Amino acid sequence: MKGGLAMKVLMVGYFTEISKINIVRQFPEDWDIVIVPPGEEMLHHIEDCQVIIPDHIKVDHSLLSVAKKLKLVQTGAGYDNVDIDACTQLGIWAANAAGVNSQAVAEHVMALILSYYKNIPFLDAFMKNRIDENQLGYTGSELKGKTIGIIGFGAIGKKVAEFCRAFDMYVLAYARNPNVQSNGFVKMTDFDHLVSASDIVTVHASLNPQTKQLINKEVFKKMKNTALFINTARGGIVNERDLIDALKNGDIAGACLDVFESEPLPTDSELRDLRNVILTPHTAGMPDGHKFHKKRYDFFVNNIKRVENGEEPESKLNQLW
Questions:
Q1: Across all residues in the chain, what is the average pLDDT?
Q2: Close Cβ partners of 307 (under 8 Å, ≥ 6 residues apart)
Q3: 314 is an active site residue
């Protein structure tokens, strides 16, 4: 990509017109930024782009083999939609943006926890429906003294742990990598102990063959029947049918979900009808408005420039030399 070649960046996903304008402004003016939804129009641009930033599509060998000029597949934090081996075979860098949305996601987790235990959605509806306050049957709970179990202890998991420390909570964490270290007040433990001992279980692992449907019926049975389950990572980590059954059967007390097996969440999903569930539409990592995240796009631009200059990208997912 050296030698003054025109830079074409293809972004695939669902974006509002305002978001598109904001995104394009983050890239150098002389770059050709093409933003399209998945489908036929995407295929018209894939052959001559040097960079693809994919969302809601699978980047597999068949797609990559058409992209003759492609040098970099750049994702956000998650990369379960990218065939890393195929990228390597075809000499294409793959990189994610690990950690850039850790603050936003961790704040969202705390917002969900507080909303659940302080009954915010219920109380908001109660007030707006102008119900006589003498009829209020309020139940709530403090976070102090509760145990939160964090599955996956990367940048987001560690940030959640720091926030929970400020609320005087006990923090357990589980990581598949045995070299992951606690930051003092966090107790590293095994998976089974974490899910059985925690009042709150929150998922911050990446989706891969080892974590696909990691949280299933057997796991929900091991949790306290008073437990709150939170997922802001990837929907595929959870067996959604088992989760719905656990919520309906009282195996767990509630759930806060930002991600789902199928996205957007189908309008007829049973999750929408459950009173013990708080839902958000995969917005945990968006601090500056839906589908816009300046820090993420600054990272993208820097990484593209690195590859353009013949350097390795930051947060690389494969090795080409």
A1: 94
A2: 1, 51, 71, 72, 93, 313
A3: no
Please indicate, yes or no, whether the overall pTM of this predicted structure exceeds 0.85.
yes
Residues 251, 221 contacting (CB under 8 angstroms): yes
Give the chain's end-to-end CA distance (angstroms, integer): 16
As a whole number of angstroms, the distance between CA 100 and CA 80 comes to 17
Q: Which of 204, 234, 293, 296 is catalytic?
A: 234
Largest CA distance in the chain: 74
Q: How long, in residues, is the chain? A: 321
User: Which DSSP letter does residue 158 get?
Assistant: H
**pLDDT tens per residue, range 128-177:** 999 999 999 888 899 999 999 999 999 999 999 999 999 999 999 999 98
Catalytic residue at 282?
Answer: yes
- Evaluated on CA atoms 65, 66, 71, 73, the torsion sign reads negative
- The answer to whether residues 80 and 233 touch, using CB atoms and an 8 Å cutoff, is no
